[in-house]
Prior knowledge:
Elements: H1 3-28, H2 32-35, E1 39-40, E2 47-48
Antiparallel strand pairs: 1-2
Amino acid sequence: MSGKIVGTIAFILVFLILWAIISVIMSRQKPESQSSADLFCPNCGAKVLPDAKFCTVCGAKLNLVPKIVKKKHPAYIV
């Protein structure tokens, strides 16, 4: 084989290996939007940030404090 063909094949192989490595790394990372639930303004429905106190679209006050719900277990009498 001529040197030009060998160089082209080597370039293609290096490109494919790097592409595969980057694909694996990117598939393991979770995007920020998927790791947390999207929050919306109850007044206008606009998407809001988790730490926002007011809606940037309509100005409504946001109460985005998560509620802690404790499940009550039934009492067992023996």
